[in-house]
Design a protein that fits this description.
Layout lengths: L22 E5 L4 H11 L3 E6 L12 E2 L2 E2 H6 L3 E6 L4 H12 L3 E4 L5 H4 L4 H5 L6 E6 L14 H7 L20 H24 L4 E5 H6 L5 H8 L16 E5 L5 E5 L3 H11 L13 H4 L2 H15 L4 H10 L4 E3 L3 H6 L1 H5 L3 E6 L3 E6 L23 H8 L4 H10 L2 E2 L6
Parallel strand pairs: 1-2, 1-6, 2-5, 6-7, 7-8
Antiparallel strand pairs: 3-4, 5-14, 9-10, 10-11, 12-13
């Protein structure tokens, strides 16, 4: 029986960053939870991902090269993977022992699942009072909707974000990215660090309760007081920034789109000077930020800027705007990003070694710390790649005991793909 970990397949420098003293156990699937744990791993935390025998569903998402999930190679990076059958008593016992050794447990199951497995916060903190448990769910750990399943798209709708997304004459749209999941993952990682900071003062851990709908709702910050005091129910603005113009995507002669953001008065004046239309400065519809933000005035100014932008090719237009110090950019595709020198200079496109593919290119580490930066030291491991390593090194089990656990089905050793 092959009981060797394939950790060496992703050989690379050791963990780095300010969190190298923290051990994290991840019991998560799909996006928000794994993204939170990936943030912690990027800054040095030792993250052990507990996966079911058939793996995290994220391994089936996104594009693949053969059997290799490119998404998993990135969102599971810097982690160790152990495959445990939590339906088995032995699997749950192993998970429990790993968790009570940890500083942080990250889970994104429905409320009550961890308790039914015997892995709830109360059970774990009876052995480890300093444990921080990060709980990510659609609607939080309590309240009338707590039991509802809640993917990011559902929670965007409940949080008011979907109503605000798209064009006003069309049904609510969505961004074709997991924006709410990633926003929630940042809140979860921030909460984990706040709880660890508190533990340093009190010695006690706590629960960090992150609800996806609440993370989505935080984007409605300016809308909440406006509705309370004025009864405003804002409508979709398309590519515009609500109550701010000109701030939109404008067409060019060669079929491209350029985003121009003339938000402040000085920038507006510079744009008007560049357009050589000084009469706009004395037009009462456009004299102030508030005036330009009225819906009918926004439509008027956008039409004027669009007529002007259509007279230029994108490269020429951008050169003029940059010289005039008007914030603007081409609307990038991913192909544009791969060619852009700023992304390269800021190390936002990093080639990470990969056992099967040679390397994958992944988004770099955010944020950048000047003294204790994070890093990417290994690609997302194969399912169960580190099962043997974790059981021997972290739980100090003998090879014979590991083999018995594998034979029982409680533990799964490496598969051949990510």
């Amino acid at each position: 029986m092959n009981t060797k970990s394939n950790t060496d397949q992703n050989a690379s420098p050791q963990r780095q960053g300010p969190l190298t003293d923290l051990k994290v156990i991840e019991v998560c699937s799909t996006i928000a939870g794994p993204a939170c744990a990936r943030l912690l791993a990027d800054f040095g935390a030792d993250v052990i991902k507990i996966e079911p025998p058939d793996g995290d569903p994220v391994r089936q998402m996104g594009q693949h090269v053969g059997d290799v999930s490119l998404y998993a190679a990135s969102i599971l990076r810097n982690k160790r993977s152990i495959a445990l059958d939590l339906k088995s008593e032995q699997g749950r016992a192993l998970a429990f022992e790993l968790m009570v050794q940890a500083d942080i447990v990250v889970e994104n199951n429905r409320p009550g699942v961890m308790e039914r497995l015997g892995l709830g916060y109360e059970a774990l903190t009876a052995r480890n009072p300093g444990l921080v448990m990060v709980r990510i769910s659609g609607f939080g750990q309590d309240g009338p909707y707590a039991e509802r399943p809640g993917y990011g798209a559902i929670c965007e709708a409940v949080g008011g974000v979907r109503h605000m997304t798209g064009d006003p004459d069309r049904p609510p749209a969505r961004v074709a990215l997991a924006t709410t999941d990633y926003l929630s993952s940042v809140y979860a990682a921030f909460g984990a660090m706040a709880a660890i900071h508190s533990r340093a003062q009190t010695g006690q851990g706590q629960v960090v309760d992150v609800a996806l709908y609440e993370a989505a709702f935080t984007q409605m910050e300016p809308v909440v007081p406006a509705h309370d005091k004025l009864g405003v129910v804002p409508m979709r603005e398309g590519s515009n920034l609500p109550s701010m113009a000109p701030n939109s995507s404008y067409p060019t002669r060669d079929g491209a789109w350029v985003l121009i953001a003339a938000n402040s008065q000085p920038i507006w004046k510079r744009l008007v000077s560049l357009m050589q239309q000084p009469e706009l400065l004395t037009d009462p519809r456009f004299e102030t930020i508030q005036a330009r933000g009225l819906p009918e005035h926004m439509r008027a100014i956008d039409a004027i800027v669009s007529d002007w932008s259509r007279g230029h090719e994108a490269a020429q237009l951008l050169a003029l705007l940059h010289k005039a110090q008007v914030p603007s950019t081409l609307i990038y595709t991913i192909a544009d990003i791969f060619k852009d020198p700023h992304f390269q200079a800021r190390q936002m496109l990093q080639q990470v070694p990969h056992a099967q593919l040679g390397h994958t290119t992944q988004a770099g580490v955010v944020p950048r710390l000047s003294a204790t930066p994070g890093g990417i030291y290994r690609s997302g491991p194969n399912l169960g790649a580190d099962s043997f390593d974790v059981l021997q090194r972290d739980l100090q089990l003998s090879p014979e005991r590991v083999q018995a656990l594998v034979a029982s089905g409680a533990v799964v050793l490496p598969s051949s793909s990510v």
